[in-house]
């Protein structure tokens, strides 16, 4: 049975990395953080910080010696360069690699050729091939939409303007997981290396749809008057693809691609079959959901 104790994080200073770092330290993993500069000293005394050249396989390989696992939480701009990190992990004898691919329908064949998703697919396929040719193993962790992001994103429900544009009727079910729960699930993956080996690991704290969110908001503050409208996921996706095809590389264009797929029922964003029990993930309670919505309405 494989044992994982020494874990390296690439991208620990981003939006997701700090949550993973905290969760790993809470269950006493030995954590190393890869940085571009040793000036990044805010990780605490328990964390080993190693300066590396992310463009150099040899530099990364040296940093990954004696490491059991690597998790990448690198952001969009660095996704393609994960192939170098994968090469280094294999060369250094790392056992488990988790790429930065945390979303709702990233592994669906229907999105593999779409902007952003295609980069994830390229890295994922590269990782699978590397695992087949070496001792490296992998886990693809699918947490659905991060709950914090969903509730902050006006395309799902606009708490500020008290409006909802129902996408395909507002009934598309989407798995959601908080950042903290996701991070604890990562630690649990490392505690169950054999059962999470070379596959997609699904995490789903809750499955929500837009109408359900609106119903919760109405229960929390029944005095608020809401405005609703309707829109098709295919139209949202097309708007994003057209903007990118015309030379646009804006956050909104890629956001439309994500919204059009996450809320398109055919892309499979709801994980009825998941690994919650294995990873110790508890379901999101109705009271907790009400509290989260109340925070957005205040």
UniProtKB/TrEMBL annotation:
The keyword ATP-binding does not apply. Keywords: NADP, Oxidoreductase. SUPFAM superfamilies: NAD(P)-binding Rossmann-fold domains. It comes from the Eukaryota. Transmembrane segments: none annotated. The keyword Chloroplast does not apply. Residues 5-220 form the NmrA-like domain. It holds the Pfam family NmrA. CDD domains: PCBER_SDR_a (cd05259). This is NmrA-like domain-containing protein. It comes from Trichoderma ghanense.
